[in-house]
Input
Amino acid sequence: MLQPQPDFTASAGGGVAGVGARVTSAVVAEGTAEAIGGWIRRTAERWPDIRPIIRIGRDAAAVEPDLTDIVERWLDEAVSDVEDGLNRADRFDPGVRHFRGVLAMAQLDYVAQNWAGSDWKIDRDRMLDELTDSWVRLLGVAGRTQTRE
Output
């Protein structure tokens, strides 16, 4: 049986990159490019340190099924933080808030896990700007006009 695993997530604006990223609900509730972009940039500073931990956890989950739950809990917590922020801001239809969190965290996790060594033909600063723009459209005040009636 597995022993309790360390929690690599953090709240209050910090967060760990990749699946363990914990975006504060306050950042999502604010929903501005400045708030979201600042959080993404602070989080990206930790990517080199946390990336191997996330990779090891995912690889080990293939051998030890209990680890799958840990990785999934990291993601679920981050998605819940996003959903909570959208709820606080009363932004978007309540029925899509959770899914918007899923999409946002999938983007962040993919970029965090694959940016090193990729040939995306974009420099790091521009990559973070594009990720920020995507999150603002998906979660922020700018995205509000893009909802279905």
